[in-house]
Amino acid sequence: MSSLRSYLAAVEPVRLGVNRLLENADPVIAGYRDHHLSEEQAATAMGRLEQSFARYMVEINGLQPSDAMLAGINAPYAHTYILEDAYLNALASGLSNGDLSGLPDTQSEQRDSIIEWRVQLEVLAQQLSLVLPADFQQAGRGEIAPSVSGSS
What we know:
The protein is mainly α. Helices cover 69% and strands 0% of the residues. The chain has helices at residues 2-22, 25-33, 39-62, 68-97, 107-127. The longest helix is centred in the middle third of the chain and has 30 residues, at 68-97.
């Protein structure tokens, strides 16, 4: 039980920080789409967001749970951060040249991994009679990557 508590204590600040950080992507995209931001302004803002995200990506991928089961649960989840970073990098690049057609489509893969991570942690928490954070059920729901199509 202490391994799971330790893991959650390490993951939660990253997960919640990423959620807050990615909320800042939609206004940048909307500003670009509505011509309130130039290509350069939008690309710069998205580039800063991607750099901030990259710190979280390194942090989550640097987690080394001592429990083998938790390590196995974390690995695919941590990989979703690599996919998201690649998407954000491509988005910043696309905004800079006005071409968003080359964005990678990894949402389904990310969603599947995040849901699998959440379910495995829920099962483990139930077995240990541990209560997960209140918003944990939201992991893997909603948009995974910032939407460039105008619908969130």
